Amino acid sequence: IKPLIDEDTLIVASTDFTHYGYGYSYVPFKKDIEANIRKLDYGAFERILALDFAGFSRYKSATGITACGFMPVALLLKLLPDDVQGKILRYDTSGNQMGDFNSSVSYASIIFTRGKKSSEVIDENPGLNDNEQLTLLKIARETLETYIKERKLPDVNNGKYTFTQKLKEKRGVFVTLNKNGSLRGCIGHILPREPLFKAVMKNIINSSTNDTRFTPVSEDELSDLEIDISVLSPIKKITGPEKFIPGKHGIIIRMLGSGAVFLPQVATEQGWNREETLCHLCKKAGLPAYAWKDDDMEFFIFTAEVIYENKI
């Protein structure tokens, strides 16, 4: 096929993703089904967007994910040139549409367009202006206060906030809570899933109540908490750890079904060099400290625009 492809060629590969339920003989989990299906699907999307043929194949073997068009997608990853950029246009599940996750099939639309940069160069984030940054922080703070005090979401569509196009774009984002200089919670998602302002709302709730490393935030703590928001660039696979620049890049590792991520600011805040960062990241993934030297280790990098509540 490859010799037949030129600049005017449109390649279409068709598949659906996770088929969950006893009717599909695939029930890898029985709790938090909707969240776990999404996590399973997005693990595949990460590898597809990174054009990671080998990683996509290993992910299928490790998880048994029931994507019936695995071979067309794998073929697509072999056909695409290195300088394409991928983007998720839409994601949904039949379980969500029907309100029943006893049986569910996942669907996604992903588009690749050709750029001019090599696969190991990542686009810098198009920056948010001061008003957009302030809006995100105000929404995050209001969501945190309202949810912890009243267990409900604030009404952000009442005209109080102005939502620019950038705030409505789907972006990967992490929300970090710090208390007296120490981490109090950090949760987010690497791939774009929903509009940026909605992702901030969801992840500040998750960071304050669902980070299993900590007890849920109490109302008495609210005044002591500081919020950081990290808006992520697309991820890129790199050929080896030497391409990772601590302090500039966030880093993701994947091996044998295990993985972990550090945001770009982690290495700087901890005073770690490249080797120290990778050793700590391996431990976070539940792997031996020097597993990053293994030939099977996969590396992905990204950048982030970090918005600090205490600096605005």
Automatic annotation (TrEMBL):
Q: Where is the signal peptide?
A: none
Q: Which InterPro entries match?
A: AMMECR1, AMMECR1_dom_sf, AMMECR1_domain, AMMECR1_N, AmmeMemoSam_A, MEMO1_fam
Q: Which residues form the AMMECR1 domain?
A: 131-312
Q: What is this protein called?
A: AMMECR1 domain-containing protein
